[in-house]
Design brief:
Elements lengths: L4 H20 L11 H7 L6 H14 L9 H31 L5 H12 L17 H21 L4 H22 L9 H14 L9 H25 L1 H21 L4 H6 L2 H8 L1 H21 L11 H22 L1
Helix pairs in contact: 1-12, 1-13, 3-6, 3-8, 3-10, 4-5, 4-6, 4-13, 6-8, 7-8, 7-10, 9-10, 13-14
């Protein structure tokens, strides 16, 4: 399979943005309020939809030939082995900290039901039935639902021609727009649409059904243009229609970003292909799953030790050190896991 090194870095940048976004929502990044970077982080510049599009794109290319498509049981077993144990550990840790900090066992049945919903990966589909524990658990639930359909959908795509792929691709965006306008907000359970849009995009890319720049300079200009549009989307269009900005405009721009990075031409791609950045990208989903645990431990310290009299974590140097230690630990975990 062809490897796209810059896409690993895209995964890292998306992960970092989401981690910092949740830091900023947890009194750990208030010093950035009112700054350009604070606006980009809070925008956010990257959302979880990047992960859905990127994963669908990669799997579509990986399984682009009939002999490469795995059996469902083997595929799901590998996905569960890689991600589910970490989800369980994170959920139990956050549950214990939440109980300690808030005394939720005053309503034991509700607390246990919430824990069971998260462990069973059902909370994302019935969020009102329990309180929120691990922040990324909704995404993991939707991912596993997408994984169940991935082998069969890959076989289906491998039989289609370019015209049919284009019709389905445009139809997936029409469906996304319908869901957003109908619900006035896209329910998390429906955000898996972006996974299958990513698969269709990957198949179109693999079949060379999308014309892309042949010259490196032109590819760089397109990448710069997409990045500029993402900034405008966060800083301007979001103020006009926040839902369309978040759930339609941003994913469409992410799709364009995927294509130009996968085109593997230009200085920007070379910079994003640096080994260190790629290594961080390969562990970024672990960071996505784990960062809520870090936030809970920091809040535990502020609650029980500092008692909110001072916040040593709300400083640029503290943020930098936490991120370095955090992603470094994820890299160590990844090596141990492998």
């Amino acid at each position: 399979m062809r490897y796209f090194p810059a896409l690993d870095t895209l995964r890292f940048l998306a992960s970092l943005n989401i981690v910092l976004l949740h830091f900023s929502s947890s009194d750990l990044l208030s010093y950035a309020k009112g700054t350009f970077w604070g606006s980009v982080i809070k925008g956010p510049f990257f959302t979880a939809d990047v992960f859905f599009l990127l994963s669908g794109f990669i799997y579509s290319i990986l399984f682009s030939k009939r002999e490469r498509v795995p059996k469902l049981k083997a595929f799901m077993k590998e996905r569960f082995r890689r991600l589910y144990p970490l989800h369980i550990i994170c959920t139990l840790i956050i549950f214990a900290i939440t109980i300690y900090r808030t005394h939720l066992l005053d309503n034991t049945a509700y607390a246990i039901k919430s824990l069971a919903l998260h462990i069973s990966l059902l909370w994302a589909f019935v969020p009102k039935m329990g309180f929120h524990l691990n922040q990324p658990s909704w995404a993991l639930s939707v991912f596993f639902l997408c994984y169940v359909l991935t082998p069969g959908f890959s076989r289906f795509l491998n039989k289609l021609g370019k015209k049919s792929l284009w019709l389905l691709f445009l139809g997936s965006w029409a469906l996304s727009l319908f869901v957003v306008l109908h619900f006035e907000e896209m329910p998390n359970a429906f955000r898996g649409i972006n996974f299958f849009s990513g698969m269709l995009l990957g198949k179109l890319f693999f079949n060379k059904a999308i014309p892309l720049p042949r010259k490196a300079l032109i590819n760089d200009l397109f990448l710069f243009g997409v990045a500029t549009l993402l900034c405008l989307n966060v800083c301007a269009f979001k103020q006009v229609h926040i839902v369309l900005s978040y759930h339609i405009a941003a994913p469409i721009l992410y799709s364009a970003l995927l294509l130009f990075l996968a085109n593997d031409k230009g200085i920007i791609v070379k910079i994003l292909s640096i080994s260190l950045l790629r290594s961080l990208g390969k562990v970024s989903f672990y960071a996505y799953l784990l960062h809520s645990v870090v936030i809970e431990f920091l809040h535990l310290y502020l609650d029980k030790i500092a008692q909110w009299k001072y916040n040593p974590f709300d400083k640029p140097l503290a943020t930098f050190l936490i991120i370095i230690i955090f992603y470094g630990s994820c890299a160590v975990y990844n090596r141990w896991k492998r």
